[in-house]
Each structure stands twice: as structure tokens, then as C-alpha cells.
Amino acid sequence: MDLKPISDSLTVSPQITVADIPELARQGYRAIICNRPDGEGADQPTFEEISAAAKSAGMEAAYVPVVAGKVLDADADAFGDAMRELPGPVLAYCRTGTRSATLWSLAEADTLGTAEVLSRTKAAGYDMAGVVRRIVNGGKTPTDTGDAKYNVVIVGGGAAGISVAASLKSRSPQTNVAVIDPADVHYYQPGWTMVGGGIFEASSTARTMGSLIPRGVHWIKAGVAAFEPDNNAVILDGCRVVKYDRLIVCPGLKLDWDRVDGLVETLGKNGVTSNYRYDLAPYTWELVKDLRKGRALFTQPPMPIKCAGAPQKAMYLSGDHWFREGLLPNIDIQFMNAGGVLFGVKDYVPALMEYVKKYDASLNFFYNLIAVDGKAKTATFAVNKPDTEAGQVTVEFDMMHVCPPQTAPDFIRVSPLADGAGWVDVDQSTLRHKSYDNIWALGDVMNAPNAKTAAAARIQAPIVAENVVDDIEGRSPTAVYNGYGSCPLTVERGKIVLAEFGYGGALLPSFPKWLLDGTKPSRAAWLLKEQILPPIYWKAMLRGREWMAKPEKVTAG
């Protein structure tokens, strides 16, 4: 038997035999659903034979036959009724298990939601692409898909999405472009570190989405439920369908707060904060100002995360405030890092270590936050050091800055666009999808091995725009991405270590060393972060003005 669990209550399988039933009973199954019509194959037992054997084994059985390739809405309803009426757990079978998995998907679509249904069936080895619109539509066949069609559809209206839309329109004004994003507000997320350090006001990092959509670009204010890349279609929440000639995918990533037990319940109170949320960054500064003594924890989860330096940026700016206020002797700073190094590019580590020493911060590597008790003010970490037995440690705190675990959005992870880890699968040079020639990706959601930062998206947007226009005009992609990313590490108020690097940790400085040496803390880099980069973001990057971001072109060998 090839049993494939889909939920606690249902397992599906290919055709079973009468001889299999005693073993199924022994494993705890209490009922069987047959989804294969009698006589479909010369070698299959009839349902009457299966039902009699099930009864002898103390099990119940139901017959919900479905013709291959013709799963009707009424069939899904009948399957759902059988699941409710039969004692569980249930085994459902057909010739391969696909019909049974499809029936479950449609029956549960309205209860579990599209991403959960697709995730569970994918894990069991079944591809539900053929019924994804029905799953999105609550398990029912859509009667009105409301199709719209664009030359280029962009999924995501964040830094990457707005920038690539603007760069695309600047190159090809006649191209019909749509951006899909449900948000009302667009945020300059790199500014939240500065909000948490008392330098920026949170309101300065927000603009209405409508004010930023480039002129001539259609804004579809909706969420994406699924993709049908074989049909050049994006399925929206509510089962509307948007068709495209070319697709650009850049919805950002998902902050998985729920993966840390107890974290959601205590965020924004009990001394627990995060600069990764607009509404919490001001609370960070409030906690830093109010802390006079005690222990401050700063956590970093396993990679990948957006802006890998952000967790320690919060630590440095906090430590700088306590240093200036003469409070450092009374405050125990602990950096709890799930990884094994302070920063992934070794050239910047010496300068950072000087500030670790200055703030007397303790570095705890291979410490991954797994639980928080806000009222008790304790944090529990899984500790997995090399060559050491894994264990757990619970630490008391007075304030804690949390960087949450991060993944690709659910609708990306379960889609045909994703690699095995759930990220959009692209060629790291052209950012074109490896399997679908008319799809590109940029920003945090793709699997290229670069830093997930707004600075990376600023470089990627013109590259993708250039390559999409090349494709529209019948040329091979000519622009290449070298993995550039930048992380301005705010080591103290007024100084920054400007980390700029590409694939493999290669240093890619934007300025000559005599002007700005990124491996050393400098006031020039602080000026860049505080006063120059925000207006560049709002007035250049999001408007298709590619200051210091012109695409690098393929050269003939």
C-alpha cells in the first residue's frame, strides 16, 4: 500500500485490495471511501468486495465514485458529507489517489483556504493545478472569472514592485502594465531601524499606495491566491483571473511571527518589540529610553531574512544610547543569533566587533528563539552548537528586540513557481524563472543567493525591466545581476559601517575608498543613510530614475 496522509482525518492511496484491509484496520483506520467506479480496470475489486471485507474488519465503507477527469461540484459535496458521517480516520482511494485528493481539496477549500489545501496536497505528492480556480472559489466551479489581460503583470507593490513598474514604463511607455497588491500603504522599511533608534518618526516612512503607482500603470487592489503559469494566469482572492503575456513576481516575504510560541500574544507589551513592524518600531525607542538597568536581548533567526544586519543594528543603536547616558554598566546586552557568525561577509566583522566590545555585548551563536513568556519576561532558545548535544535555554529579560522567522508567502510556497524551499526559482544572473520563460522575479521572494535588502531591489529592478523589454522585442536578456546588496550597519548615532557586497561575499563598493571606506565606521555613510537614501528611495527609485543603478550588460566574449 502507498498511503499518503493529507490530514489527521484523511489518508489517500492508489487502488487497494481486499487483502490490504486487515492491515488498514490494524493501523487504526475506521472507514474507507471508494472514489473509483466499479469496472474501470480489469484488475480492480468491486466496491461490494471492499465493503464486505471492511465490515468484517470492523470498518465502515462509502461509495463515492467519480469518473477520471470529471470531478463535479456535487461529487465534492458528496465526499464532504461522507467525511462528516464516517468515523475517522478515513482512507480514500481511487486508481492513483488523485481523485480522492481532488475531492478532499474541493470539500475543504472553504474551510482551510487555498494555501493550506495546496500545501497539504503538495506534501502528499498530488498536484492540484487543474482545480486551483475551484479551490480559490471555495471548492465550487467559477461561473464568472472576470478576466483581465495585460502585457506585463507585477505581483507585489513594495520596493521591488513599484520600482520595476516605473523602470519598465520608462523604457517602454506603450506596454500595458498592472501591479497587483491589496495594501493601502507603502512603507520605506529601511527607515524602521532609525525609528527604533529615535532618529526618524514612523510617519516619515509611510506613503499611500495610490500616490506611488507609476503613471499609466493599472493598480489591481487585491490579494493573489494562486498561479496558473501554464495558462499565463494569476488567480486573485475571490477567483477573479488576470491574464498576462509576461509576469514579474515580487511580493516580498512573510514574517512568520507565529513560529515562535507566545510571541504574537506579547508583541508590543511586556518589553517585547521589533523594528520589523511599523507599529512596533516606536515602541523599541520607548523601551530603550526607559531602560535604566537590566538585561536586553536582541534575537536573530535562521537565514534567510530581510536585511540580515537589522537585528544587530537595533543592538548597536540601543547600546549607543545607553553608552551616552552612562547606563551601560547597569545593562546586560545579549545578542542571540541562530547562526554561527556575526555577519556573513568577513571584511566587515572587525569593525563590528569593536562596537560589540564598546557596548560590552555578549554574542551567543546557535541560539534560536522558540518561545516567549511575556508576563514572566522569559525567552526560550533552542541551542544547537556544532559537536554539542542540542538543548534548550530559558533566559530572563527586561526588554527584547525580536527579529521573526521569515519565509516566502504561502501562495508562493505552494505554487508551481517555487523551488523545494518555497522561493521563486530564478536564474541568478538574469532573474528569469528557470522553468517559465515569460516569468521573472526580484526582491526578497526569489532564491538567488543575495542579501534580501531594498538596496538589492534597487539594482534588480532596472535589470528585470531591461530583460523584460528585451524579451518583448524578441531579444535574449542582456542585463545581468551580480548579487549586489547593501546593509548600512548603524553602529552608533552618527556613524555607519556601509556593507556592500555581491555573490560569494565579493565587495562591491559604490564609492572610491578615499571617499568612503565601507569596512570602517564613517559619518559619510551615516549622512547617506539619514539624509540621502530616503529621498532617493521616494523620488528616484520608485519613479524609475536609476541613479547609480544602470543595468550591467552582457559583453561579448
From TrEMBL:
Keyword RNA-binding in record: no
Q: Which domain of life is it from?
A: Bacteria
InterPro entries linked to this entry: BLH_phosphatase-like, FAD/NAD-bd_sf, FAD/NAD-binding_dom, Prot-tyrosine_phosphatase-like, Sulphide_quinone_reductase
Q: Which BP terms does GO give this entry?
A: sulfide oxidation, using sulfide:quinone oxidoreductase
Domain (FAD/NAD(P)-binding): residue spans on this chain: 150-254
Query: The Beta-lactamase hydrolase-like protein phosphatase-like domain covers which part of the protein?
Result: 2-109
- UniProt keyword annotations, A-Z: FAD, Flavoprotein, Oxidoreductase, Quinone, Transit peptide
GO terms assigned for molecular function = FAD binding; hydrolase activity; quinone binding; sulfide:quinone oxidoreductase activity
Keyword Oxidoreductase listed = yes
Q: Name one Pfam family in it.
A: Pyr_redox_2
CC cofactor: FAD
- UniProt cross-references to NCBIfam families, sorted A to Z: TIGR01244 family sulfur transferase
**What is the protein's given name?**
Sulfide:quinone oxidoreductase
- Organism, by scientific name, is Primorskyibacter sedentarius
